[in-house]
Design a protein that fits this description.
The chain folds into 2 domains: 5-230, Spore Coat Polysaccharide Biosynthesis Protein SpsA, Chain A, CATH 3.90.550.10; 234-300. Helix content is 49%, strand content 14%. The chain has 10 helices and 8 strands. It has helices at 18-31, 49-59, 74-84, 104-112, 130-148, 164-169, 180-186, 212-230, 234-263, 273-300; strands at 5-11, 36-42, 63-68, 89-92, 118-122, 160-163, 192-196, 310-314. The protein has an 8-stranded mixed β-sheet with strand order 7-5-6-4-1-2-3-8, with helices on both faces. Strand 2 (36-42), helix 2 and strand 3 form a beta-alpha-beta unit. The chain is elongated and about 90 Å long.
Length: 316
C-alpha cells in the first residue's frame, strides 16, 4: 500500500540539522493526518550524519536511509531516493533546514487537488549573498526560461513536489537535478507549477555550492536540450549538419571547376585557397556523418548510467 507522501532528502555532512528536520516533518504530517516516509540518502558524509539517521530511524518509524560508499553528488542521491519512494506524492527538500516542512501541505494539495504533475518552489525572498548567489541565480534562471520555455523563477530550488508517476518516468543522472522540470516536460508531463516558498537562513554548517555550479549548470542545460531532442536519434542532428557541410564544400568545388572550364583560366583549381576550404568542409561533413553513425551505435548499446555502490540501507 502506498503512503500519502514520500519525502526524499539528499544529505552530505548535515548531522546537526537532521534531528530538528525530522521532528518538524513528523509534526507537520501528524497534524495533517498524512501517512508518510522520509527517505534520507547519505551521499558519503564524513561526519556523524549516518549515525544520526540510524538513531532517527529507531525513534521515528517513517525514517528510512540509504548510504553511499562515497560522495557521488545530488543527482545520484535523488535517483536512488526516487527509486525507493512509494508515496503517491513525492517531495524533495534539502537537509540544511533552509527549506521549511510547513510548505508540505500546500505542495501536496497542489498535486492532489489542483492536478499539477510537478510543483517547484520559488524562494522569492532569499537570505543568500546578493552578489555571489542571488544575481548569478537570476541570470541562470532567466537563461533557463528562455531556452526551455518553462516559466519557473527558481528551477534549481530543492523544494519540489511530484506525482509518483513523474519520478518513476525520468532518469536523474550526472548533475541533472537542476533540470528535473525539463526532464519531466520532455517525458510528457506538461502541467508544471510554481509556489512561493519560505527561504530560511542557514542555521548549521556551510553551503556546499560554489561559482562552478553556474558554469556547469549552463553546460548541463545544453546537454539536456540536445539529449532530449536527439538522444534517441542522434543521426537526425549529425546527419543534417554533415549533409549541409558536405554540400557546401561540394558546391564550392563544383563552382571552381565550372569557372576553370568556362573562363579557361591558367591557374589550376588546386592552386586556389577556395579549393582547400571546400575540401576541408567536405571532410568535416563526412566526419559529422560518421559521428552520427557512431552515436547511433552507442545509443543502441548504452550501458546503465546509474550504478552506485550502496554501503548500507535502513528500512528498505
Amino acid at each position: 500500500m502506498h503512503s500519502d507522501i514520500s519525502i526524499v532528502i539528499p544529505l552530505y555532512n548535515e548531522e546537526e540539522s537532521l534531528p530538528e528536520l525530522v521532528e518538524w516533518i513528523d509534526r507537520v504530517c501528524a497534524a495533517n493526518n498524512y501517512t508518510h516516509e522520509v527517505i534520507m540518502v547519505d551521499d558519503g558524509s564524513t561526519d556523524r550524519s549516518w549515525e544520526v539517521v540510524h538513531s532517527l530511524s529507531q525513534q521515528f518509524k517513517a525514517v528510512k536511509g540509504i548510504r553511499f560508499q562515497r560522495n557521488y553528488g545530488k543527482s545520484p542521491a535523488l535517483y536512488v531516493g526516487f527509486k525507493a519512494a512509494t508515496g503517491n506524492v513525492v517531495i524533495t527538500m534539502d537537509a540544511d533546514l533552509q527549506d521549511s516542512p510547513d510548505e508540505i501541505p500546500e505542495l501536496y494539495n497542489m498535486i492532489t487537488r489542483d492536478g499539477y504533475d510537478l510543483v517547484s518552489g520559488w524562494k522569492k525572498v532569499r537570505y543568500d549573498n546578493a552578489i555571489t548567489k542571488n544575481l548569478p541565480s537570476k541570470l541562470y534562471n532567466g537563461v533557463n526560461r528562455w531556452l526551455t520555455g518553462i516559466k519557473l523563477h527558481d528551477m534549481n530550488c530543492g523544494l519540489k513536489a511530484y506525482k509518483r508517476k513523474v519520478i518513476k518516468s525520468i532518469e536523474v543522472y550526472g548533475e541533472m537535478h537542476r533540470f528535473i522540470p525539463v526532464l519531466a516536460k520532455h517525458a510528457g508531463f506538461k502541467k508544471i507549477g510554481e509556489k512561493v516558498v519560505q527561504h530560511r537562513a542557514r542555521k548549521y554548517g556551510s553551503s556546499k555550492f560554489g561559482w562552478e555550479r553556474f558554469i556547469n549548470g549552463f553546460l548541463d542545460l545544453l546537454t539536456i536540450q540536445f539529449t532530449s531532442r536527439f538522444g534517441k536519434k542522434p543521426m537526425h542532428f549529425f546527419g543534417v549538419l554533415g549533409a549541409i557541410t558536405f554540400l557546401t564544400g561540394f558546391v564550392l568545388v563544383a563552382q571552381l571547376i565550372i569557372d576553370k572550364i568556362r573562363f579557361a583560366e591558367n591557374m589550376g583549381v588546386t592552386n586556389k585557397p577556395a579549393f582547400y576550404i571546400a575540401l576541408t568542409t567536405m571532410v568535416i561533413g563526412t566526419l559529422f556523418f560518421l559521428t552520427g553513425f557512431v552515436a547511433e551505435l552507442v545509443v543502441r548499446n548504452a550501458a546503465d548510467r546509474n550504478d552506485y555502490i550502496t554501503e548500507e540501507k535502513i528500512g528498505l
